[in-house]
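Pasting as-is:
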Amino acid sequence: MTNDLDLLKQLAPRDATVVDTARREEDLAEILATPRSGAPRSGNQGRIPRRAVIGGLAAAGAASILVVGSPLLPGSKPATALAATPPVLDGCLGERGPATQALTAAATATATSTFEGALGSRYSTWSLFTRVLNDQPVRSAVVPQEVSFTLAEDGSGQRTVRIGAPEVPAGYDASGFELPTPGTVVRDDKYGPGQAPRVYDGALSADPSTLRDQLEHAHPIRELGTGELFVAITDLYKEQRPDPKVRAQLLRMLAARPDVVALGTLRDRAGRPGLGVGVSSSQPGGLPARFVMIIDAASGLLLSYEQILTSSPGKLDIKIPSVIDYALFQ
């Protein structure tokens, strides 16, 4: 099995060490090897490194697109690898002017929310990560992962990753394609005190300056811009549900960004309505993309994050527009 490096070249970070490629490839191998069932595994994978990526190629994310080669017929030539991607949510590519007013109103409501914060997270995630088999024709399916991350104050915890419901988009050939069984456990990692991998250490501050520094410490927001701020907030929610004062300050931080646009009321992949905001960003080494958040305006909680390539696939053979990353929080 070989990597199709060209497929990922234009989405790769400048420092490839920040992407946990080995972990993603290990997960993909397990998924490919267990189409019907799988056994839990455990181990300490250490800390998540700080990331400097075009939003969404997650440092702790596993391979979330299943790519399988099919045999060549005599005399035939390899076909181009075409990656299956999730549908674009309605309204994600529109805009209704600056989101300042809507975000400020949501921040005011959030500050008095009774929905408290908590360590740990539960979410469904998918990101584009393709593999090819010896230059053979490729068929693929969208295979999301269901992540349960428990975290204690002493830094101990457990991360369990299960296969979500696979999806084969319309027009893709799924004949003879054995998809993994939903609910199959592909990772079950237990961590002792101080060993749970985290992007952010400890509690985040509601002080604007301190919070900004905490986010910057883990993500190069000054360098990469507002799109990376969206990623930073999403990574935070993958580890914890911030308390109301922190959530309110995060919304004010977004409101202060003139490039964040209002998208109106959007529905996430679970059908929940929320305040939609987005930003268009072409980060260094990346491709033009729209970053989208769907937020519960009353509690300030992040419901969903989406990243969509909008004008060029680079060397990725996918349609435009195309979702390349999402996270759906419970």
